[in-house]
Amino acid sequence: MASVFRSEEMSLMQLFLQVEAAYCCVAELGELGLVQFRDLNVNVNSFQRKFVNEVRRCESLERILRFLEKEMEDNVEIVKLEKYPETPLPREMIDMETVLEKLEAELLEANQNQQTLKQNFLELTELKHLLKKTQDFFEVRDDFFSEDTSGLLELRSTPAAAAAKLGFTAGVIKRERMIPFERLLWRACRGNIYLRYTEMDTPLEDPVTREEVKKNVFIIFYQGEQLKQKIKKICDGFRATVYPCPESATERREMLDGVNTRIEDLNTVITQTESHRQRLLREAAANLWSWGIKVKKIKAIYHILNCCNIDVTQQCVIAEIWFPVADAGRIKKALHQGMERSGSTIAPILTAIHTRMAPPTFNRTNKFTAGFQNIVDAYGVGNYREMNPAPYTIITFPFLFAVMFGDCGHGAVMLGFALWMVINEKSLLAQKSTNEIWNTFFSGRYLILLMGIFSMYTGFIYNDCFSKSFNIFGSSWHIIPMFKNSTWNKDVLLDNTVLQLDPAVPGVYSGNPYPFGIDPIWNVASNKLTFLNSYKMKMSVVIGIVHMIFGVILSLFNHIYFKKYINIILQFIPEMIFIISLFGYLVFMIIFKWCHFDVHSSQSAPSILIHFINMFLFNYSDTSNAPLYLHQKEVQSFLVIFALIAVPWMLLIKPFILRANHQKARRMVRDGDQFNFGDTFVHQAIHTIEYCLGCISNTASYLRLWALSLAHAQLSEVLWTMVMHNGFNSSGWAGLIIIFIIFAAFAVLTVAILLVMEGLSAFLHALRLHWVEFQNKFYVGAGYKFSPFSFKHIIDGTSEE
Fold first, then answer.
1. How far apart are CA 684 and CA 679, in angstroms?
2. Do the beta carbons of residue 71 and residue 281 sit within 8 Å?
3. pLDDT digit string (tens) for 355-382?
4. Among 249, 323, 333, 500, which residue is least crowded by beta carbons within 10 Å?
5. Residue 211: which pLDDT band, with cuts at 50, 70 and 90?
6. Which sequence spans correspond to the domains of the chain?
7. pTM assigned to the model
8. Domain 127-263 is of which CATH architecture?
9. Where does residue 100 fall: left (phi above 0), alpha (psi -120 to 50 degrees), or beta otherwise?
């Protein structure tokens, strides 16, 4: 049970393993997940370690697995098992390498063949479209020498040009390149060409990217060899594919028939190749997930073995491990199982190491406490075996959040959302979402659950539900007696916009306050805000001071556990005297005033603020502010003097006692640690000043509880008045539709502003109150986290290593 309030007791041991058994023993420890290995080869380059070749082989296998997974991502489903496969033996890695390398080679060959076949299919398809479209082009050949081709017309007028034969180039080009292609041809050839093009009816598939590509068929008529070479270079520059095209229609038809035959044959071969490829992928998909887990485990084991030393005889692996003392039996059992699995006859040896190194901090958690422990660790991992704030944070964090967020309605919505996540957590976990925001909310589902519950609790105390009050027990104030007593009548109602209930009138006040929370009559009172401000401000101060005093009390348990008894006398006691004498007394005055003055005597109640200021000024001559109780002057003077004595008590005595203890120890042992009195005194002065001023600033910081609670209540009231209230002004079927629309807007604004934005704001403020105002009283948070070698963490991607 002590481990709940402190981190686990850790042990550092040296582990000796036979080389043949090292792999299996480390594998068993990885399955257990309770051992942290120290890197004994920090100064050795990662490429010079013993098992670097095995790690590289694992990385090669991971590359093959990534390749296979990429090939399957479109249309092959990877089979995942419910349980992780067992860690394979080293010899199984060789078999797995052989299978995966063979599978990769076959798949690469199938992909290459398929790509070649699809490239041929693409070219034949393009040629098929080209042969069909060129028939139309040749039909307009006789119109080539027209008014639009004046350059060629001038050439034709010369005898040499007339005897020349008209040539042409046909091909295919991507559609988006057609316009610049046409423009460049016209300019480069100075208009001495005739270009015709048309779009292909169906898009084609690129054999490399497997994306659809839209292309155009073109034909260029020209005259002369020089233009032919120029056109060829431009086609190459635009990556246009040029195909041979017969001039006669008969030859084109014969070629088209041959192309169609070849396309049919290619389709058959492509189908067979794809079938073979899919068969390979389906066979691999059945084992791909298991292979991936096995390779990760093997790689992790060799990574750990690279952190170990090997003796000069090359027969023994030496490791240093941290582990919880409570789990020593389980670790020894795991090592024995690893020895048996490897077939070794030499048992692993564990030897305790005495070290001055600080052990890692390990706080054992479950799915409920993990979220609260993460809140604490986000500020800083605790020192080894110091008090863990997480068990107290389970209650105080959602409570302080709820003080700022208190509303029954909003708390119920938050509770419903958290309950949905908790009830469906198994199915939601199985989805393994990669959305970071969702994973953050889901990880804190139990924290949100408690925040919702506490928000409903404080909502009942504030008697606030969507800015409206419940009247469950009946108000303690009644209006009718004011009319019966003739204090109020019609004339009074007409002459006054605001009326005040008089508790002196019999029957107006029942004599007992509302049984639980704020009386619902305050919801209609004009001075509601003044009353709630006073109440919430004082409540924030009381909660804050109690929270801080509790933090100082927890520091006592640290001093006792670490046997720093001097800190109890010279630090804990003066700290308690200081905070209780001043701020504890402030709490006493608030509670005393609440209990002593009721509705009948509240008008004569003195001001706590004035009394608290006069307490430090030693000023008791103000007759307008009556004392709270008899002998108040003597009590307050004693408390102030006592608090002032506590300051030099903390500041001066401890450094001198530490110096005296060091000098005494130095006389007994000549070679001792150096002691710097100046540093010690400065450190103690900083601590004293920080604590004394921190008590003041931290108390003021807790007023954020009041400020955010006020803001939340006012925003809730604005939303109700400005939005939801308007839906009640209409009646009939039209009113039904209007209230439906208005409620939808009200719900959206409530969730977006009050639940998300205000909820996040209250969460961050509660976080700050715990990190700064509470934990600085006892929590150092300068340790380092226990990072065990765990297959589960590595596979899930949550390893700290």
1. 9
2. yes
3. 889 999 999 999 999 999 999 999 999 9
4. 500
5. confident
6. 127-263
7. 0.82
8. 2-Layer Sandwich (3.30)
9. alpha
